[in-house]
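thread: overnight batch results

M.L. [08:02]
morning all. the overnight job finished for the chain we discussed friday. pasting input first so we're all looking at the same thing
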Amino acid sequence: MRKPIIRSNVNPLALPHLFFAGRAVLTFRNTEKETHMTVKVKQATDKNDRKIKLPIFFVSVSLLGDRQTGYVFAGTIFKDTMICKLHRDVPSESQLGKVMLFIMNALENPQILRDKKVSLLHEGRCCRCSLPLTHPESINTGFGPDCLQMVLAQTQLKVDDLFFKQE
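M.L. [08:03]
and the structure it wrote out:
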């Protein structure tokens, strides 16, 4: 029997930091429509040296709620230019194409998540290294303690910026 997934609300304004951390699994939940989608993001690494991370992110989306077979490769996002390239089998007018457009808009302006009443949840794994999170503070931020220190050192964030805040 599978262990239940720990899903924790995180601050929607922290979406770009969580999304581009390296190995995030994020769920966008529309509280008004009672719908959700889960997005897996994996950062590309250099072929010769796997420790070198590239600014290229592969995005798979599950719209069905099926955690295993429901993931479909949607496209690639290039962080340095913020260009999204849809997979060749994903037309831009399809539901998956619209999802990728929504994700790109949310990455550029995370405030639209709050405006559209969309909550952001993570799967109980570190958004950077994908190891299980066990400490309550780590679950609330979406990062393990070591990864959190690395993310804070690379960005202008404070720990409080990652916590979910009700308005």
